[in-house]
């Protein structure tokens, strides 16, 4: 089992380390050809407009969309969540349109408003937290989207089919259960 981590920009190394701690092999994905033969895929945090430009520059945009739409287990965090949303606001921008949600970029404020915040819901254990760094805010959720965790009343961890997405950065916490949830989606590490 090998999970690809989109490595064009952002915190891809932290995701690779979080998966390695769980015995999962990773490979950095920088080209469309790198999407072949993967067991799962991570779209990490970073800057969504930059990621979009790089995806389109390297002709990866449509291949990435087709790969995820084809059923590849995918984990999208922060900017990755912005990439998979069906609607992006503040400002509006392109997206892959794979998860029926509306997100507002930097919806929880600027860098100064970043921090670790309690989250709760059926997809996380009691006492769980999320590291929110210039995080997107989910403002609308479609019928086919399961809300797994909330920050107050706001959805912050969602799943639609093969895509697990979160507003926060579970890779920043050494033993965050959301990383374990993704590993389970992929099929777990080889023994």
Structure classification: alpha/beta
The arrangement of helices and strands along the chain is: EHEEHHEHEEEEEEEEH
CATH class identity: Alpha Beta
Strand tally is 12
Identify the CATH architecture: 3-Layer(aba) Sandwich
Structure report:
There is one protein chain. The chain has helices at residues 12-20, 48-57, 61-69, 79-84, 177-186; strands at residues 2-6, 25-29, 40-43, 74-77, 85-89, 99-104, 115-118, 129-132, 137-141, 146-151, 154-160, 163-166. 45% of the residues are buried. The chain contains five helices and twelve strands. It is globular. It has a seven-stranded mixed sheet. It is of the alpha/beta class. It has one domain (2-186): Class I glutamine amidotransferase (GATase) domain (Rossmann fold, 3-Layer(aba) Sandwich), CATH 3.40.50.880. A hairpin with a 2-residue loop joins strand 11 (154-160) and strand 12 (163-166).
Quick recap of the structure?
Helices cover 23% and strands 31% of the residues.
Question: Could you outline the blueprint of secondary structure elements for this entry?
Answer:
Layout: E1 2-6, H1 12-20, E2 25-29, E3 40-43, H2 48-57, H3 61-69, E4 74-77, H4 79-84, E5 85-89, E6 99-104, E7 115-118, E8 129-132, E9 137-141, E10 146-151, E11 154-160, E12 163-166, H5 177-186
Parallel strand pairs: 1-2, 1-3, 3-4, 4-12, 5-6
Antiparallel strand pairs: 6-9, 7-8, 10-11, 11-12
Jot down its keywords.
alpha/beta, globular, 5 helices, about 190 residues, 7-stranded mixed sheet, Rossmann fold, 3-stranded mixed sheet, 12 strands
